[in-house]
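for the record, two folds in this file. i put them one after another cuz i was lazy. first one right below, seq on top, structure tokens after. the second one comes after a little note so u can tell where it starts
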Amino acid sequence: MSVPTSVPTSVPTSVSAPGITADATGNGATPVPELGPGVPIVPQVTAKPVAPVGLSYDTTVPRTLVHRSSVAEVFVTDSKQTGEDAFAVAAQLPRGHLIGEGPLYDFTLLLEVVRQAGVLAAHRHLDVPLASAFILSDLSLRTLGFDPLRIGTKPADVAMSLDARPKRNRAGRVQGFSFTGDIHVDGEPALIGQGGLLIVSKAAYRVLRSKRLVPDHPGWLLPRFSPASPAAVGRRDERNVFITDPVSESDHREFFAQLVVDTSHPHMFDHPLDHVPGHLQVEAARQLAIASVARLHGLDPYSLAVASITTSFTDYTELDQITRLRATVAGFQWDEQLGTFTVPVAVEALQEGRTTTALRLEVAQWR
């Protein structure tokens, strides 16, 4: 099994970005297809998380520590070890960013912050070599409340607590780790989650992907699909639309779209990649879920946001193949914690008839 990865930007020809995940559950709603035992469940909130203190927000960390090419795409600012395998990571969320368009801090931007936090902790505190590839096997996130995610009059300070469980070989080298954690925005608890990372050497990653090496601008032989209207998916900038206009075929609860890949996008393709990054797949799944829920239930796409998301990556999604997305929408359920209705949606990414990525989301009407 192979899944999306994150590798240093200095690694030539064979580089990629993370895959990301999160969970959705509910009682009394129309069933959503199961994703299998490999999909993690977001831990339930048993007590109000406490934000770590003593972190600096003065400057971002070196971009090599988070596998980014552009300094502007680095959001983490500091980290410290708080226990044997426990860490605190700080980040700042910009009020204006290409991928952040609405009144809430963008969920996709938050996912990137989480990815950077995990990579930074590995390099700075677990002695993982810089020339390593990170394979994000799973990452689940659940929103605790939308109020902390509202964009205010200044950039938001993010504090993350990570409890890691490293997996080491006989020589003591870290080969990966699973983690649980929570995210505070300006001191308020905003999200909880869990995930898992596998870590391989640059040489091992090259062997893993050697048969899939592609040109500098992969996918150029594929059809140029026309993206949906930004308003249909809750976006405003057409550059941030990554699916075609969703269509419903035989089952009115099922919606289909093609994945729209733009390898020049400065956030999704911060540096050359050798497959469709999981980051982009998650955003495309979110857009399809929001568009499908809006059409099926007659809601305003701009009033919808992600309450939780869980992803299972079973294979790489290749850039030189057409990717079809399928969403299955369930009925309304009441979320007591968020104080609003949510709708579960199952999304699959399909290439040549096989599922490469499966996601489960909860879409909430937050205002």
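(here's the note) second protein begins now
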Amino acid sequence: MVNDQRHAAHRQERIAPPPAQRAAPASPGENGVRDERDAGPGRTADAAPGRQDTEQELSFVSPQGELHRVLARFGPDRPRVVRPPAVARPVRFKDGWKGVQVRLPEEAAGDRAAYTLLEAEITAALALHRAFGGTRFAGLFPTPVGHDMNTPSPFVLYAVPRGRPLAGLTEGVSLAGQRVVERDLVLAVRLMDLIGLVHRGIVPGAVRWDDHAVQVWDLGSVVRTGRPRVPYGVPPFASPEQRAGVGATEPRDALWSVAQVMHQLVTGRPGSPDGPPADLAAHRSLAGTLSPVYARRAEDRPTPDALLRTLVPEMAAEVAGVLLPDPLEQYRREFDETRRRKHAALALRPHARAVAPPPEDDGPATGHGHDYGGGQAPAPYPTAPPPHPTAAPGDFTGYEYEPRPDRSRLRTWISGGRTSGTTGPDRGRSTGGNHR
């Protein structure tokens, strides 16, 4: 669950710092909230204009379901850190703990698609944390510390991110480093596959690198395996079938994205959006391991398990036994089904005319209502179909293929260009990400 809507008297409340999974304070530039284009030499994000120095009370629900209230200070928003319209800002608790808050500004919180993506991000972050939080693979994903979706500006708190996005790197990554990036990305896809998740948004802006390991962000792009594909993503990083929105989502969609990220990392240029890149044979480091992943059709690509066994057989064997049975799996499935029915019941469009309930007759009403001690049960929900076709919530995103007023922010987040403070003719042009 991403919301705890019980009354405060029924929740276990602790007025204390969050759980003990706290990262050590990172040096400037490693916490994911410094914008290298805005900060001058020796200047950190905390010294940027607009810093909020006053302490504020922050309440959130931890991954363990406990309510916390802490005093916190916030730094300025950094739009380039996360996918728009979400923004990220550094946060420091009174006890010295540092992290990052990913939130929707109040003006964007009413956007149903944006709200759905943040809700999906929290759900995916919690699922990954529960599955792999106690293993050596936990660092591949952001560490959730808390969340609150019931505020004017919904948010999720993470521990300090590692490294910098691949999209923002201006220096090349060594050949040995490229092999580690390749291994970690395939490993992340395989781990998600184990718990039935697929990442549809693996792009250079969502992959962080600290010279030792990878960390995969933008968990709002994660969906369950087997969900019908909808048009999502940008070429060449999104697979052809994903951009077309045909068939069912599967892990080999994410492997295509991994191969495209690696092509740009190695060559400094985007690959082909529809098949193997024309220069694949010229780069043996790509052709030797990822050649089959560039297949246009998902069924012609290897599975994450098969690819990981080719790259690092010993790690593939370890991964196969890392997942312990989830004793709450049955209840999670029941919750998901209940939420699906709830969303389906609320899928009426705002302008749809409500259908009047049938008049009461001489018999008591039966159906979905509950008797709260007031006598007769409420009338059942109307069964007549809505006057307009509806889609289940979450089957669209609104970011890739619907016209939006400022798509340049999304493009630059993916490719590593500028997003704000640029008004010249090169606005939106990528200034990084070439690694030759």
